[in-house]
Amino acid sequence: xxxxxxxxxxxxxxxxxxxxxxxxxxxxxxxxxxxxxxxxxxxxxxxxxxxxxxxxxxxxxxxxxxxxxxxxxxxxxxxxxxxxxxxxxxxxxxxxxxxxxxxxxxxxxxxxxxxxxxxxxxxxxxxxxxxxxxxxxxxxxxxxxxxxxxxxxxxxxxxxxxxxxxxx
Length: 168
Ligand SMILES: CC(C)(COP(=O)(O)OP(=O)(O)OC[C@H]1O[C@@H](n2cnc3c(N)ncnc32)[C@H](O)[C@@H]1OP(=O)(O)O)[C@@H](O)C(=O)NCCC(=O)NCCS
Fold this sequence. Notes:
alpha+beta; binds coenzyme A
């Protein structure tokens, strides 16, 4: 049984988000200003996971015509391994499908095994590399894409994950 809920982001969670950013990304975290701008950006959609009235995870996308670019995803270190990232992914995929978006894409560090495994579980494939994309250590970025999320095969994939995580 999951003890969290998913909501659209609001300013009241910015303190919690700042804390998770620092814990997740260290010196390279986004600023509070960045999240404030994202909240009012009409192309953005951000969702948060709430547990005991605190934000314990968040995920953002930019919607660009029929594609959505995942901008950020993080879960508080003390709450990882509890299906929160999967629930955030499902909320965003459903939102994108409602907007007739066909493809989701993102960049991820090759060293970030937990994130890559998560994206692979959601059917993302590696389709290219951006050389020396990350300025902090010059690491390349793997570019990952879904197949068409509006097709039945993909709908089946995330429905199975939804059944799996919400039946526990
Ligand atoms: C990546 C991250 C968001 C996963 O959050 P989470 O809530 O722990 O993930 P979930 O519990 O929903 O797990 C989902 C899946 O992710 C993968 N995964 C998560 N943690 C993993 C780990 N430590 N090792 C391997 N796979 C892992 C698995 O495929 C898992 O599915 P499974 O339970 O069926 O094996 C979290 O580790 C995080 O915040 N990391 C720091 C920020 C970051 O790197 N964000 C991604 C930037 S591209």
